[in-house]
Amino acid sequence: MTTTGVIKIDVVLQQLCRAFNTSPFFHHLNMKMVLDGQDIKCIVDMDDSLIGNVAFQILHGGVAATLLDSIGGIVAMGELYKRADKDHIADTVKKVTRLATVDMRIDYIAPGRGRQFIGSAEVLRMGRKGCTTRMNMHNDEGKLIATGIASYAY
Amino acid sequence: MTTTGVIKIDVVLQQLCRAFNTSPFFHHLNMKMVLDGQDIKCIVDMDDSLIGNVAFQILHGGVAATLLDSIGGIVAMGELYKRADKDHIADTVKKVTRLATVDMRIDYIAPGRGRQFIGSAEVLRMGRKGCTTRMNMHNDEGKLIATGIASYAY
Amino acid sequence: MTTTGVIKIDVVLQQLCRAFNTSPFFHHLNMKMVLDGQDIKCIVDMDDSLIGNVAFQILHGGVAATLLDSIGGIVAMGELYKRADKDHIADTVKKVTRLATVDMRIDYIAPGRGRQFIGSAEVLRMGRKGCTTRMNMHNDEGKLIATGIASYAY
Amino acid sequence: MTTTGVIKIDVVLQQLCRAFNTSPFFHHLNMKMVLDGQDIKCIVDMDDSLIGNVAFQILHGGVAATLLDSIGGIVAMGELYKRADKDHIADTVKKVTRLATVDMRIDYIAPGRGRQFIGSAEVLRMGRKGCTTRMNMHNDEGKLIATGIASYAY
C-alpha cells in the first residue's frame, strides 16, 4: 500500500470508483469502474439496450462518449490525489469535487462490436486550474473502438 | 407538402424520426425525435436515471453527447434527402444507410439543469463523401447547455 | 464612448489590437486586428506566401488556424474587459495577461479561396477560470471558409 | 529498399517530403519534412518570426497548428502509398492528390519553448474515404508541447 502524505491512495481510488459506480446514469448503462493495481478502468458489457444500429448490432456512439468522458474524469481525479501534497489536501479535495468536463473530442475508429468494452485514460497535462486527459476504449479482443481527448476544469 | 423529385420529404423525415425512435439505446434514454415543420428536434425529459452528479442534480455529460451525436446525424440524413436528385435517389439512400459519425467535439456551456432538453442541428458542409454538422442542446428555459460539432462520413 | 467603471472600453480594445498587431508571428503573416465599433475583426489579405497548395492556389490551413486562434483569444480578452467590475480591475488585467489557448478545434468548410479573409468570434461561456469562444473565417465574398471553437484558460 | 508492388516506397516518401517542402507557406515558416528511415518528421527551428508572445518568448500556437496539420497529412499520404496495391496504384495517387483536412483538434500541453520543434504522426484509422491521424509536437529536449488529432478526406 502506498501513502501520499496522510492519504492512502488505494483507499482513495476505491472510494472514487464507488462514487462513480453509484452515479445514476452510469448505473443505468451498467458501467463499472474497477481498480487494477493503481489503474482505474471503466468496463461495460455489450447489452441489447446499448445498441445504436440494430441492423449492424453495434454500440451506440453515446455509450462510448459516456465511457470516455467518465474514465477521463476519474483518472484525472485519481492523479490529483496521487500528486497531492499532505499540506494542501483540502485544496485537492476541493479540486476533485469541482472537476467538470469543459470539452471533449471523440474519434470513432472502428465499429462498436464486441462482448465487452474497456476504457482507460492517461493525464497529458495537469495545470493549476484544469487538465487534459486522453482516453481509449477497446473491445474485449483488444481492438481500439474509440479514442477521446478532454479538457477538465477544477 | 413538398416533393423533391419523387420523394415526399415530409414522409421521409417522419420515417427517419421513426427509425431513430426505435433505436434501442435511444429508447433506453427515453429520447425522441420529433418533426416540427421540416425541422427535426431531439427531445429528452429530465429523469433520475439520466443524472450524473447526484449532489448537483445535473444531467450526465454522456446524455448530452448522445443527444448531440443523434440530432447531428438525423439532420444530416434529412439534408441528404432534401438535396436529393430524383435521378440519383438510390445513391442518396446508400449514403443515408452508410452515414456514420467520424468524430465529434462537445463543449459543455452550462450545468445540465432543466425539466427538458432540446437538441437542434444545422449542416455546415455537405460534401461528396461526408458532411459537417453543428448541434446545440438547450434546456426548456432556452438556456444553451452544450454545443457540438461533428464530421460524418457516408 | 462607453466606460466600464474607470475603463474606457474603446481605448482598451484599441490597445489589445495594437498588442496583437505587434506580435512577431502575426506580423510575419501580415494579419491585422481592426476595431469595428466595439467588435474586433482579424483580417489577412491573400498572399503568395500564405498558399498551401500551389496547384489549387488555396490558403494553407495553418493560416486559418492562426487567425481563428488569435481572433478567439482577443475577443475573449475584450469580453473580460467589457464585463470587468471597477473594483476588480486588477483581477481582470491578470486574467487577460494569463489568457492562453487550452485546446481548439477547426473545421474546414470550403477551400480557402479569396482575396481577403476575415475572422470574427463570439464568447459562448465565460467562467471563473476559463472561457469558450466560437470563431468563423469568411472570405471577402462572405463565404464561410473555416469555423473553430476553443477553450482558453486564465 | 522496400517495394510495394511497383512502388519504391522510399522514393515515394522522398517525393512527398519534397512536395511539402516547396509549399509556399511551409517555406515561409522555414518548416521542413525529413525522412528518417521510413518515418517522416516535420522540423522547425525556433525563430524570432515565429514567436507569439514576446514577453514569454514562446512559439505562436498557429505554428504548432501548421506543423501538426502538415505532419498528419503527409504521414497519411505515406500510409496510403505503403498500403497501396500494385493493381490499384492509380486509385492511391488520386486519393493522395485529393487528401484534405476535414477537421483538427489541437491541445496545447506545455508552453512552446525550445530551440527546435519536431512533429511526428501515426495513422489511427484508414478508411475508404478518409482517415484519422494523431500528431505530436515535441521540443528538442523531448518535451511534449502540443498534440493533435485530425480527420482527412480523400
Note down, in words, how this protein is organized.
The structure is a homotetramer of 154-residue chains. In chain A, helix 1 (9-21) packs antiparallel against helix 3 (61-82) and helix 3 packs antiparallel against helix 4. With 154 residues, chain A is an alpha+beta fold. The longest helix of chain A has 22 residues, at 61-82. Chain A has four helices and ten strands, in the order ββααββββααββββ. The two termini of chain A are 27 Å apart. Chain A has helices at residues 9-21, 24-28, 61-82, 89-98; strands at 3-4, 7-8, 32-36, 39-45, 51-53, 58-59, 100-108, 116-126, 130-139, 144-153. The first copy, chain A, has one domain (3-153): Hotdog Thioesterase (Thiol Ester Dehydrase, Chain A, Roll), CATH 3.10.129. Chain A is elongated, with a radius of gyration of 16 Å. The mean pLDDT of chain A is 94. In chain A, the strands form three sheets. The first copy, chain A, has a six-stranded antiparallel sheet. Chain A has a two-stranded antiparallel sheet with strand order 1-2. A two-stranded antiparallel ribbon of chain A has the order 5-6. Helices cover 32% and strands 40% of the residues of chain A. At the A-B interface, helix 2, strand 5, helix 3 and strand 7 of A face helix 2, strand 5, helix 3 and strand 7 of B. Chains A, B, C, D: Residues 57-145 form the Thioesterase domain. Chains A, B, C, D: It holds the Pfam family 4HBT. Chains A, B, C, D: GO terms for molecular function: acyl-CoA hydrolase activity. Chains A, B, C, D: This is Thioesterase domain-containing protein. Chains A, B, C, D: InterPro entries: HotDog_dom_sf, PAAI_dom, Thioestr_dom.
